[in-house]
Amino acid sequence: MSLWADKYRPRSLSELTFHPRISKQLQVMASSGEFPHLLVYGPPGSGKKTRVLATLREIYGAGTERLRVDVKTFSLSSGRKLEFNVISSSFHLEITPSDMGNNDRIVIQDLLKEIGQTESLDFSKFENAVVSPNTREHASSRKKFKVVIINEAELLTRDAQAALRRTMEKYSANIRLILICNTTSNIIDPIKSRTLPIRIASPSTSACAEVLEMILRKEHHARKAFPDDSEHRNIIFKRISDASERNLRMSIMMMEAMYMNHDTVSINTPIIKPDWIDVVHELATSICKDRSVSRLQQARSTLYELLAHAIPAKLLLKKLTLTIWDFTGALDLKDKAELRKAVISASTIYDERLSLGSKDIFHLEGFITKVMVILERYVVIN
Amino acid sequence: MLTSKNKGKKVTHDHSPSQQKPKIQEAYQNSSSKQPADSKVILVDSDDDEIVTPQRKRKAELIESDTEVPVKKEAKVLPKKSPSKPKSTKPQAGRSSQPSQAGTGETAQEILETIPDADPKYLEVDPEMENMNFFQLKARTSEAPAPTGDRVLPEGRPNCLNGLTIVFTGILPTIDRDECVRIASKHGAKVTKSISGKTSLVVIGHEAGPKKIKMIKEKKIKCIDEDGFVELLQKMPADGGSGEAAQVAKAKREEEERKAIEEAEREEEENRKRKDQLRQERAGQSSQPERPSDKPDTEKLWTVKYAPTDIKQICGNKGNVELLQSWLEHWFDNAKTGFKGSGIFGYRAVMISGPPGIGKTTAAHIVAKSLGFDVIEKNASDVRSKKLLNEQLRSSLSNSSVVGYFNQLKTHDPNNRRIVMIMDEVDGMSSGDHGGGAQLSQFCRTTETPLILICNDKSLPKMRTFDKTCYDLTWRRPTGKEMKSRLMTIAHREGLKMDPNIIDQLVAATNNDIRQIINIMSTVARTQKTLNYENSEQISRTWQKEVILKPFDIVGKLLSGASYGSHARYNLSEKINLYFNDMDFTPLMIHENYRSTTPSKLTGCPANKRNLRHLELLEEASNSISESDLVNQLIRGGEQQWSLAPFHAVLSSVLPGSKVAGGMNGRIMFTSWLGQNSKKMKYDRILQDLQYHSSTKTMTNTQELRLTYIPFLINMLSDPLIKNGASGIDKVLELMDEYYLTKEHWDNLMEFGVGAKGRMDQKLKSVSSATKSAFTRKYNSYSHPTVIYKTGDSVTKGNRAPALKPDLDDVIEDDTKDVPDDEPQEEQEDIKNDKLIKQVKKSTKRRK
């Protein structure tokens, strides 16, 4: 029993429902046998990885689904040993160099070179020869290279990216890179120019609803809990996809959680959001409503709790800003626009500081205090 | 009401010392007036016939230039000083040139009469406060505006408050209370905390405690406000005038001095006798080489020269010393009975602990010597590893003294053959002394010789081994009072003139370190012959720098209102230096505490804007703290630009401090950033581990795993247990196996909930312990699929499933082996036998 989000993950390009144009392009590319380095980017829950894996399956066949995790050991110049996990099949491997923090350059240098310098032997030739000697004969010629998927490419340090740029050209005969990231803003230009960028946007609300509907069709038990009326179902799906900000993975999780927690789901059933979203929302609202020193003190403990539990500071800042933005939008003030502009401007300043600095709490608190001052000043003046 | 004073006072500094006195008074008179400054002021002043015209003109300008000065009319009430009064009994050097109109013969009482009583509003008790308890009162006082700190107390004549007992209560409008206390005691007053019959006056501010006010009213004690105190300081003649109390106090002080001198003479006499004796003894055997201890005194350090030679000379810790003495005296009697006694008499060894420089080692030696014991001392300069202790110490612990044996022939005292072992600097036993601590503690149980251990900090973890084996004697820092006579004696013997009042100051500057005070004295004695207020200030400041402040003290100083403003206690560079006392902790501590002050900048802010103003100040501070982090990154990051450190000091500590400085609400807290940061590291590590295990299934990155999967996984993995109890176990285990999660992961996952709704610890309490143990049992009963072999802790944890190692050929296959049930020992075997990774998926197949 796995989660629906994993259970109903499409395995082939043809199963993918939304962004048909991209799926088509990938299919063409896969069948041509040659493809360039790829830079796949887009918001979370839009199906980047799913698409990439489906493409690999298209090229290499089902062998790409037999995955294992290896622990590779690297030694630094200082003599310290570092462990690094690599997920691999016999056709591709998947790495997350940002796990290594500042040492990601070593992974890029050592691991990629090692793979790049070895020609991959093609077992499938024999395999295919046994199974079906004719059908896949020509396929063997296009499997000369291994594919390396680099996750969280936006978190690569400058050093690692610099190490990557030459490797990409030098060993292109043996490896193809697929970089997956949420935004390209941290990727240096030389890398962008060496890759084919593919942006995967979040699915539209209707595409989201379509997927959810498809899952319900397959889950017979769950189907019964949801209303029969397709109109009503669509309203629920829309609420879910709005709440998840069109993050498909989150949408499916939310639907499953709704089903798990309620015997019957109606259009009024509350949507179950991840706990941290509720906490951030509560924090932002309380800041807007109660602008006092004691509130600041409480905000500190909440922020500490969120940060300690591995919620990224930048995401916190973004969520806080958006909630405050919504809150100020509902205010009845005469120069509301000015006020909202001030909030956004403060947010951008502290966003930069989060990137440059190292103590997240300093900057988040600075932002919260600044917002309180902006709001309080407007309230006192009006 | 006294805001103008600074201006007036500042200007007076420009004049020659001889004119200074009347000018200061003038300035104060004017500034304490209540009318706006205009021509009227000059009219008021023209009554004062003491003032010479050119000066007056200048002063008039001065006041006119500051039109906001509030002026009070009663200023005239000040009594005119008659120059005919007798001179101070002990005119101090450098002061004698002062104009003598300051009435030196008046008694304190007379002068007090002339000072107006405090505004009766101070004595009104807020009915609310009457019923408050201590903590409520404390909270209330911390809310009150803190002193602005923009006024500096004038210098009075030396010892001018002699014989007065002063109580400060409430919050004074402009001066920090600690500062007042310092000034008052510097001038010879006795400052107490509570009001009694002996109290001569009370200096009162607002928010004074209701009890104190009641006492004041009952005892009818003279009560003045801050202005009155300033006035008093200026008017009181040297040595507290001729009042009875002042005379008594003076007599007492002289008595003290006389005693010190007597003591000094007595000591010198003894010294001479001893030397004579030695010389006589030596006469017969003159061929003997000179021993180092016979060096003339002038070549010795003062701390050696004046080291106590007698129990009576030890400053402070009298009780402890006596206890130690009686313990040592009865040690061998107790040894016969097997140490059955109570308290200290039940121990074979004693641990003396206390800060450096307060005479621990000295006391131990003197006590031993006074009873005639021979001393073996080991300190940090000796290697004290387990092996060496065994070799050297064990043998000596049951020995007797050879020197003592020969002495005994003369004296017939049994103690002379006995040894006392002193282990000094026990906490200095370092990594080189491997196992020494434990071994020493073993000796403490069995020793045949009295053992005295000495250390600085008993609370260290490595000292815990001695907790049970030694009796603990804690040495306290001797107070200034206890040191006074000893120090005076030394000063007299060296011909150094020392003002008794400054001992307190030196004590504060050195943190009650008597050894350091003696060192200071010996340094001063090289260049000058007096140690009084004029140079002690500077001396103590130079020496104070040697003390490295603790983060709490640094923050206390940086966030105190008196540190900023036009009359700041520290200038910018001194404040930066405060940061450098501990540049790692100061920024963190400032960040922790900058919001718990009541900024003095809020004083005078209208109530409706107070909150906004406070937030604005905090915003400026937090902005600066945030910027300081970027600078910190330049310093400690890749660029290593350490020259930016002073800039970081300003941004991270001084600037935020300057915004929010004021009274602290509550205690100074230790930084929570360190704890939170290590917590974050821990959760990051757990998250990474979860990601490694589940990544083949979830196909996502760490961040998405945290944000999307974990909140839902927590619910799915706990709900069946919470709702269905034991029958939900299978469902949970199935899901866990699907994602390759172990029981340890399950425990870790449950800690990831945030917020009141998300936290799992409360929710999981509803799961019965029977269900929990059934869950664990069930989990352990069969082996689970793993995708990953991780070196390290896989076997050590009892509850964990055996981690399985993939074969060298990367073979993945179904585990066909039967797994033994439910028994931990067999699990251990499992690991040895089964190296193959096991997959439950049907898709896995054998490949070679």
What does this structure look like?
Chain A: Keywords: DNA replication. The complex is a heterodimer of chains A (382) and B (848). Chain A is of the alpha/beta class. Chain A folds into three domains: 4-199, Rossmann fold (3-Layer(aba) Sandwich); 205-261; 275-381, Zinc Finger, Delta Prime, domain 3, CATH 1.20.272.10. Chain A contains 16 helices and seven strands. In chain A, strands 2-3-4-5-6-1-7 form a seven-stranded mixed sheet, sandwiched between helices. Mean pLDDT of chain A is 86; it is low at 129-141. Chain B is an alpha/beta fold. Among the domains of chain B are: 5-77, no CATH class; 108-242, 3-Layer(aba) Sandwich (Rossmann fold), CATH 3.40.50; 317-474, Rossmann fold (3-Layer(aba) Sandwich); 551-671, Zinc Finger, Delta Prime, domain 3 (Up-down Bundle), CATH 1.20.272.10; 785-848, no CATH class. In chain B, the strands form six sheets. A five-stranded parallel sheet of chain B has the order 8-9-10-7-11, with helices on both faces. A four-stranded parallel sheet of chain B has the order 4-3-5-6. In chain B, helix 1 (5-12) packs antiparallel against helix 2, helix 3 (39-46) runs antiparallel to helix 4 and helix 20 (501-510) packs parallel to helix 22 (533-544). Residues 1-104, 286-292 and 791-848 of chain B have low confidence and may be disordered. The interface between A and B is large, with 74 and 77 residues.
